[in-house]
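Fill in residues.
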């Protein structure tokens, strides 16, 4: 089945209101004839979800694709729990401007802003919210244009620690907010909530840096970062109380889970605004995709399968499906081995074709063997067999056995 998202217009403002979203299901269709291998269905004919799932692979990917096909019967909740402040419109910045808009520069500015917030929060010094809101507005515009480059920047394996986590979480939350169809003002709050959410986490560095799993008492202490982070947001944004309230009304739900196992309130299901779940999923994704003091980073495939297993348990099925259709198992910047025996770097995602990104071949010394891009969507004779250097992905992918 395919989800159909209907945006219901507000009769007074005549603007599209994301809080009024409903999903319905199309009538069940008769099963299509089996698609002969090795031909993979094309998205133009079937749509992204159908194109990714019609071949019905068995074994390792079966649950993954089943999750994409299953349609939740529960309408999505409102994105945010209260109205949001008016958005800041990012104007083009000239070469002499203070914020050049290249992805790399904006990302560096984001890390710097995270550091500024942590330093100011430690002493309770209010900040001017204008540069902060402008940076987030520019990030939203830039991520809409070049999402792959921002995802690659946020997935750099060597970037660990609280400041980089804050930056990664902001990028992922903005990206996922865009993917679910939120408006710019709502995406802005998502990005700001993601940036502020862990502002108090450096205070617990002495606990989270220990090379082992935390014990119950340590976990209880670290969970205080939610309350301390909300207090810091109110203090830092004293000049803009509505903005601080909107941020906190999202960030307070980041660690809540659909089955009630989250914190601080142990909320369940529809009690959790979808905005909080977006930041929460982004937080989980980044935590698993990067190295921690007690474990190595997990490959994107393993992270994706975690969300498959927790679909409808910890996270809303609608968000999980959006995530699986947006965050590929082979994100830009990752390295893969092809069925030809060559190694390649993933440079772009083909949305809806989860195992067929665009790649660039890598030479023996690690540099590009050829500047040309190989689009696996159009090259059916070549497919990915495994992600290079990941023990969890050492087993060939089902595609190498069942289809091209």
């Amino acid at each position: 089945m395919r989800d159909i998202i209907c945006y219901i217009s507000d009769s007074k403002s005549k603007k599209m209101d994301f809080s009024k979203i409903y999903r319905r299901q199309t009538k069940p269709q008769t099963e299509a004839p089996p698609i002969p291998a090795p031909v993979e269905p094309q998205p133009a004919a079937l749509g992204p979800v159908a194109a990714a799932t019609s071949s019905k692979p068995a074994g390792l990917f079966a649950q993954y694709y089943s999750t994409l096909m299953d349609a939740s019967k529960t309408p999505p909740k409102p994105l945010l729990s209260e109205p949001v402040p008016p958005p800041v419109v990012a104007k083009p910045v000239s070469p002499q401007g203070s914020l050049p808009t290249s992805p790399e520069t904006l990302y560096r500015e984001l890390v710097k802003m995270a550091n500024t917030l942590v330093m100011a929060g430690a002493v309770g010094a209010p900040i001017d919210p204008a540069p902060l809101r402008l940076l987030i507005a520019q990030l939203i515009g830039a991520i809409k244009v070049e999402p792959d480059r921002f995802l690659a920047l946020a997935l750099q394996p060597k970037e660990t620690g609280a400041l980089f986590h804050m930056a990664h979480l902001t990028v992922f939350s903005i990206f996922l907010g865009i993917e679910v169809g939120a408006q710019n003002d709502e995406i802005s709050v998502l990005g700001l909530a993601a940036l502020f959410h862990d502002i108090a986490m450096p205070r617990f560095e002495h606990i989270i840096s220990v090379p082992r799993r935390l014990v119950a008492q340590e976990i209880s202490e670290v969970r205080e970062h939610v309350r301390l982070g909300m207090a810091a947001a109110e203090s830092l944004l004293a000049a803009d109380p509505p903005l601080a309230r909107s941020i906190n009304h999202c960030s307070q739900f980041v660690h809540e889970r659909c089955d009630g196992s989250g914190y601080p309130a142990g909320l369940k299901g529809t009690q959790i605004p979808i905005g909080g779940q977006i930041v929460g999923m982004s937080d989980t994704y980044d935590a698993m995709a990067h190295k921690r003091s007690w474990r190595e980073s997990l490959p994107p495939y393993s992270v994706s399968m975690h969300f498959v297993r927790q679909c409808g348990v910890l996270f809303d099925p609608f968000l999980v499906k959006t995530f699986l259709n947006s965050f590929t198992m082979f994100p830009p910047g990752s390295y893969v081995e092809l069925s030809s025996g060559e190694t390649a770097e993933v440079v772009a995602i083909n949305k809806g074709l989860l195992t067929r990104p665009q790649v660039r071949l890598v030479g023996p010394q690690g540099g590009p063997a050829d500047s040309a891009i190989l689009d696996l969507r159009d090259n059916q004779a070549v497919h990915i067999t495994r992600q290079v250097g990941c023990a969890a992905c050492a087993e060939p992918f089902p595609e190498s056995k069942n289809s091209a």
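The longest strand covers residues 16-25.
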